[in-house]
Amino acid sequence: QCNSGYSGANCSISVCFNVLSNSSNACFGNGTCVAPDTCQCYQSPTTGYYGGSKCDQCSNNYRGIGCKQLF
Fold first, then answer.
1. CA distances from 25 to 4, 59, 60, 69 (A)
2. Checking CA distances to 71, which of 4, 11, 33, 45 falls within 20 to 30 Å?
């Protein structure tokens, strides 16, 4: 049995909002699950600028497809 927020054979895979950190769907695919329910959102011209606790929205001052358009 793993501690809360972790999964996997060695309990080394963190879980962000019910999605395993090694899944491409972790943090809505817009960031990295770095600890249980803790997403580090992408912040670059290549990946886009995302925010929110789940990386499910554009960062402040960004919008458009891929959150890459500064406004």
1. 20, 19, 22, 23
2. 33
Which SS3 state, helix, strand or coil, does residue 67 take? helix
CA distance 10 to 43: 30
- pTM value is 0.89
Average confidence (pLDDT) per 10 residues, the chain, 71 residues: 95 97 98 98 97 97 96 91
| 58, β-bridge pairs | 50
Cα–Cα distance measured from residue 50 to residue 31, given in angstroms and rounded to the nearest whole number = 8
Tell me if 59 sits within 8 A of 68, measured CB to CB.
no
